[in-house]
Amino acid sequence: MSATCPMTGGAVIADGISKEFGTARRPALHDVTLRAAPGRCTAVVGPAGSGKSVLLRCLAGLERPTRGTVRIAGTELTALDEAARTEFRRTRIGVVYRQANLLPQLDVADNLLLPLDTAGRRADPDLLQRALDLLDVRELLDRATPALTRAEELRVAVARTVLQRADLLLVDDPTAGLDAITGRHHLRLLRRRCAEFGLPLVLFSADPATAAHADRVIALQDGRVVQERDRPADCGCEPGSTEHIA
């Protein structure tokens, strides 16, 4: 089993996560450990069936691991009952799926504020203005949601997570539906903005190129970690650069 690291403020720690399904106890994850620090990007890469989606669901509180623990900003998610886990997930974890989960009947402005409105909270005015500018969302506010491009949907979904003051952002297949140039631009933007907002970012992708934009890479195969590597701290790379990345 992997050793447990001491908790640091705002960090995300999945420690020795295993997940089995069905009466046959079919393993989907086996002893997976992941660290995600505030403002840092972790990429979880692997082919279809490698366990990426199951790990995402465990980190998001949608699945309870068979063994192991998940701690997010000091809260042990795996120790919460279903109601408390649902509330934690709703208010403190941002998940951006391929479809971005925007409501088509609402415009962009209403989609941005919907989670806060549902929770009876108001957006912090300074944070709102900063998110609109840094994520290039301001010009989209009056747009109808179905008219957005895939890249615009992703920016809105990330801005919504920032406004929630979430403790973690999980992004599934961040370059799906984007051409190579737009995909690279989106990953650079995502990484830089999460660093500026101090938000732990975990990307899940079957595209190995995603690893070039991460501070840490975890490769999964058949539910097991088969490789881990860090971006060298002194590599001199601009965020999003592919230089010095194997």
Automatic annotation (TrEMBL):
The keyword Glycosyltransferase does not apply. It comes from the Bacteria. Residues 12-244 form the ABC transporter domain. One of its GO terms (molecular function) is ATP binding. InterPro entries: AAA+_ATPase, ABC_transporter-like_ATP-bd, ABC_transpr_LolD-like, P-loop_NTPase. Keywords: ATP-binding, Nucleotide-binding. This is ABC transporter ATP-binding protein.
